[in-house]
Amino acid sequence: MSNILLLNAPRVDVGLVTETWTAPSAGLYNLAAQITEIPPSCLSIVVNQNGSPVYTAPTLTPTQSAIQFKVDLDCANADVITLVLSSSNTNDTMLESVKTNVSIGQGY
User: Fold this and answer.
1) What's the CA gap between 57 and 41, in Å, rounded?
2) Domain total of the chain
3) What is the pLDDT at residue 40?
4) Range of 20's domain?
5) What share of the chain in percent tops pLDDT 70?
6) pLDDT, tens digit, 9 for 90 and up, residues 38-54
7) DSSP string for residues in 19-69
8) Cα–Cα distance measured from residue 13 to residue 16, given in angstroms and rounded to the nearest whole number
9) Which residues are CB-neighbours of 4 under 8 A, at least 6 positions away?
10) CATH of the domain at 92
11) What is the pTM of this model?
12) pLDDT for res 91
């Protein structure tokens, strides 16, 4: 499932989702996210810019249930930014086992 992000509008989602945002103009932007997972398993978190990875989050350890990060982005007009959550563990596919708080802002 793909969700569309809006500039300066935080969004909360549950489940393995893909968040998409298109830069309205060239400039400096940032993507900030906090992702919680219950129980921790093998969640993969990647931020792409025009389909190429620009950030891959470290794998959560068995004692870690959340990760928070901010990615700085230098975008051209109409660059497409995606935050992709995926997992090979079936526990992560259950609704509400993964919760994402994400926002796109201007500047670094």
Assistant:
1) 14
2) 1
3) 65
4) 2-106
5) 95
6) 776 788 999 999 999 99
7) EEEE-SSSEEEEEEEEEEESS---EEEEEEETTEEEEEPPPPPTT--EEEE
8) 9
9) 19, 20, 21
10) 2.60.120.40
11) 0.91
12) 76
